[in-house]
Amino acid sequence: MKVKMTAAKIAIVLIIIAAFALAVSGCSDNEDKSSDVTDEVQDEEKDLDLVTVGDYHLMPQKAVNVGILDGGGGKLKEDKCIGLCFLMQEESPSLLTCTYGKILDFDVCLGFEYPLSNVGSSYVITEPVSDEEGYKTRLTFVYDAYKIEDVPEKIVFKSGDKNDSCAMPECFNVIDDENVIADLSLADFGEGDNKLLMASENAYADFFASRVNKLYRIGINKLKDNEVIPETDDLDSILFDKTTLEPLFFDKEVKEQLSAAWKISKEALSGVVVADDNMWLCTDINAVKSVAPYDTWKYLIMYKSYESRLDKGFYYGGDRVCVTTMVYVIDVASGDIVHMKFIGADVPEKNTKTPKGAVMKDEAVEYIRGMMGE
Predict the structure, then answer these.
(1) Which end of the chain lies in a sparser environment, N or C, as judged by fewer CB atoms within 10 Å?
(2) Is the pLDDT of residue 332 over 50?
(3) 238 Cα distance to chain centroid
(4) Would the pLDDT of 184 be above 50?
(5) How far apart (Å, rounded) are the C-alpha atoms in residues 154 and 156?
(6) What is the C-alpha end-to-end distance of the chain, expressed in Å?
(7) Can you tell me the distance from the alpha carbon of 197 to that of 210, in angstroms, rounded to the nearest whole number?
(8) 102 and 123 in contact (C-beta within 8 Å)?
(9) Torsion angle, alpha carbons of 23, 29, 35, 39, to 10
């Protein structure tokens, strides 16, 4: 039987076919779009690929808050700074020897715009891992005084003279409250599986300067608490006789005891550290070739200067500042100052281009060398 189709019926059929074709096409488009969305989500969740730095292979893991090291007491302060954790395929990183100890042979820096470009880490925490397949070590690079919102757009990997940079991984953009490292102490320096390393020689120097300053403050304030010398408003300062420019003591006999000739035995020399007027440890004394390990310090010897007298209006249009230089020996275990020596005072001349006295460094170093038997 033949079926005759009117023009109207043909039009209806064509419309239905077109509608079906459009529906199929739309479904295909939706599937493609859904696939695109899924890919985008996957791309967002996918972290940075493995990074090669020198001889090492690192995978960004997470950002953490880390307590700032207290150079004096050896504990971590409550203040927090930022730490970036990387998983490393290698078992342990290589270390370089510097004046103050051992440092990691590469660094991961925060890539800020000028003038804060490439801010290096202050110290690095290394620890073995066994629950991360394909990785043996976790490195946490710690940056002083940086919060998560201050983290820049990129990170810079430094190895020798080579610098490589990449965008900041997404995993570093959030710090959970549980991601806090706050139970480290100085006993972790280079010991056992968990190691705490300074990231650079400057970081080492700054850290030890902090400890020197803390030991000095403890010693000076013990003398004040025991009423050996007068109290002052400033924790770091002492009072001076305005004529002799020597420190003031309540008890002349105690003054003589503390300033009496003092020698360091050869057995104790290995535990002696020497600091300069800026609290920096120095190795230019022959008996101190390098800085003794932190936990072997026995005596801290340091020279320090003070503005011991101010002569206001001494010069036409200006004041004269007299400077006193002292040498201290501090017993590290007890925090006691066991020796303090007045080296001298520099009083500017009546006619001079330098109205402030100078630190008597050469005389102080010579005196220290004498104490050490040189």
Answers:
(1) N
(2) yes
(3) 30
(4) yes
(5) 7
(6) 127
(7) 16
(8) no
(9) -160
pLDDT band (50, 70, 90) for residue 25:
very low
With contact defined as beta carbons under 8 Å apart, do 139 and 196 qualify? no
pLDDT digits (tens, 9 = 90+) for 144-169: 766 666 668 888 999 988 889 888 88
**Is the peptide bond preceding residue 115 cis, with omega within 30 degrees of 0?**
yes
Tens-digit pLDDT profile for residues 27-48: 334 444 444 443 443 334 334 5
